[in-house]
Amino acid sequence: MSLLRTLRPTLPILIGASVMLTLSMGFRQSLGIFLQPLTRDIHISVSDFTLAIAMQNLAWGFLQPLAGAMTVRYGFRPIMMAGAVFYIAGLALMASAQGFLSVMIGAGVLIGTSLACTAAAIAMSVAARAVPATVRSTVLGMVSAAGSLGALLSAPIGQILSEGYGWRTGLVGFVILSLVMLPAAWFAGKVDKVPLPARSVDDIGDTSAGVAVKVALGNASFVVMTCAYFVCGMQLVFLTTHLPSYLAICGMDPMLSAQTLGMIGGFNVLGSLFFGWAGERWNKLALLGAIYVFRSLILAWYFTLPPSPASTLLFGALMGFLWMGVGPLVAGAVAEMFGLQWQAMIQGLAFMSHQLGSFLGAYGGGLIYDALGSYTMAWRIGVALGLAGGIVQVAFALIRPSRPPLLRTA
Predict the structure, then answer these.
(1) Following DSSP, what letter does each residue of 221-264 receive, concatenated?
(2) Which architecture, in CATH terms, is 13-189+208-398?
(3) What is the pLDDT of residues 258-276, one digit of tens each?
(4) What are the C-alpha distances in Å from 4 to residues 123, 127, 146?
(5) What percent of the chain has pLDDT over 70?
(6) How many CB atoms sit inside 10 A of residue 98's CB?
């Protein structure tokens, strides 16, 4: 009840950020269900489709620091509203696609640009600014959890519409749902009127973007976290892009892929809440490394065995629990290291690494499949790099532990 009283003045902001995040991430994580029917209908290859998704991730990653820096100058609201418009346009262009160029511009450039303005880095920065430091990690977990509901809803909706009326109708359904992002971004933009809290001893404070970048890249803990973040993007985008195709190749019911993506979305909620809570009590960077290690072990288990409906849904539940939990941990770690003013930009720097991994997961997976006719080599590479990145992250976090967040100078 005390938490609710603390959050009541900022509930419109938090709800707006959560709805914006859940839609932007839900649509993005569900695009893989259109891979097979879209590529057959407009006569493009699997690697063409995955190149567009890879370009989406590159655009998202490289524009994220710019979008974060622009929120300092122009405020969050105009950036998020513009991102919502880009998302609507990208889905509409994708729904009307007749060839590769439309898919590349719609799914790649426009949606990638939108995600830089509406997804985790911006939404988490909005939530972090709106609440006191004492409850920040828990609230970040709650916003991340709410943001996880998108895949739970959008994947089954898209699959049902696609199976019943065709993939274009499925994407039109996404276009209609994406209109809700506009009012969500408007309400989240009320955070522009919330004053920054008093600075801690580590807060970068009033400085230029260039100095903030230099300080961030000179922090060893941030650099290791950023490099390990590469693994996160590679594993997750490989799954969202290629799991539906993998299940189709194995002769599984097409609805199983949507159910699995929905299962991932549902367990995202539990994982986000847990890791938001855990981040207030234990080393955030060590928790990140543990997530990468356990994800890799689960990937190895699932792809080693022939898939079944039961094993696939269990796989979705386990991966979902470890999926969006990175969001509150990364956002909380960046806020602790550098303060709130440049959080969105600095978190965007880390996210560039994540998106380079996403590019490799989406496009590399498509190239390997087109070359070998199998995803075996792709998942083996993902497991090996995931174990290496996770172990290094845990080891470095334990060697250089950060102070518990509740003991930091207010």
Answers:
(1) HHHHHHHHHHHHHHHHHHHHHHHHHHHHHTT--HHHHHHHHHHH
(2) Up-down Bundle (1.20)
(3) 778 777 777 878 887 888 7
(4) 20, 15, 16
(5) 91
(6) 10
